[in-house]
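Quick review question:
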């Protein structure tokens, strides 16, 4: 294809001008290829960034759920421990009251 185009350019413009025209045409074609490749790479990068963002958002949401679940479990454990401590203290007070009767005037 380039040979045919080069021959036409030589016939039309003469050897020197034909060569320049061919080089100019080849330069334009090369620039179009570079531009197309650049656009394809930019689209590929954009798709990769979108996938990465989606993955980060998914993992962030998962981590937030895990954190909320851990907080819920910890609060539940603290509540149970507090209830057990209150019950233990109530039993202790009851034992102390049973040992020493409260004076009538107090």
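Suggested answer, residue by residue:
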């Amino acid at each position: 294809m380039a040979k045919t185009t080069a021959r036409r350019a030589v016939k039309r413009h003469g050897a020197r001008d034909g060569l320049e025209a061919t080089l100019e045409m080849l330069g334009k074609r090369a620039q179009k290829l570079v531009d197309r490749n650049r656009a394809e790479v930019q689209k590929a990068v954009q798709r990769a960034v979108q996938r990465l963002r989606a993955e980060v958002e998914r993992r962030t949401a998962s981590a937030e759920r895990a954190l909320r679940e851990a907080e819920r479990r910890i609060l539940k454990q603290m509540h149970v421990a507090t209830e057990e401590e209150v019950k233990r203290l109530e039993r202790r007070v009851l034992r102390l009251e049973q040992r020493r009767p409260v004076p009538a005037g107090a």
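Why it works: The two ends are 116 Å apart (CA to CA). Residues 16 and 37 are 31 Å apart (CA to CA).
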